């Protein structure tokens, strides 16, 4: 069973994404910001991370940079799910090491298609 970490400061978004993924048989954990996500990542092996960008304490971009600095996480797929649709933000996030960028609200079928593709490639 594949294990996924969902990182978002919005409780509603976390619950929605967890529900979609759980129904497909994925084991899902969550964190409310980048700091919590790093703690979980250091304690548990994940097959994929889905993260927002705009969060308190540590945003998704800084989380992504820190993850990519750690050699053991260099190949970990990270899907960014953010409401920021500016091309500059998308490019900046991909340059920081995101595997894929989806704009909220992403349709459940698009989210699942992206998750499957990243897990298969990873």
Automatic annotation (TrEMBL):
Superkingdom of this protein's organism: Bacteria
Alphabetical UniProt keywords: Phosphoprotein
Function: May play the central regulatory role in sporulation. It may be an element of the effector pathway responsible for the activation of sporulation genes in response to nutritional stress. Spo0A may act in concert with spo0H (a sigma factor) to control the expression of some genes that are critical to the sporulation process.
Modified residues (4-aspartylphosphate): 52
Name of the protein: Stage 0 sporulation protein A homolog
GO biological process terms on file: phosphorelay signal transduction system
Lineage summary: Bacteria, Bacillati, Bacillota, Clostridia, Eubacteriales
Biological source species: Caldinitratiruptor microaerophilus
Ranges of residues in domain Response regulatory: 3-119
């Amino acid at each position: 069973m594949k294990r996924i970490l969902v990182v978002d400061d919005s409780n509603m978004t976390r619950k929605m994404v967890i529900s979609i993924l759980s129904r497909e048989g994925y084991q899902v954990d969550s964190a409310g910001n980048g700091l919590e996500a790093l703690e979980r990542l250091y304690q548990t092996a994940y097959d994929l991370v889905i993260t927002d960008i705009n969060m308190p304490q540590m945003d998704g971009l800084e989380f992504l940079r820190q993850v990519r600095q750690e050699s053991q996480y260099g190949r970990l797929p990270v899907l960014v799910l953010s409401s920021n649709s500016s091309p500059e933000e998308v490019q900046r996030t991909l340059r920081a090491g995101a595997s894929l960028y989806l704009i909220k609200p992403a349709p459940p079928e698009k989210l699942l298609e992206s998750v499957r593709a990243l897990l298969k490639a990873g």
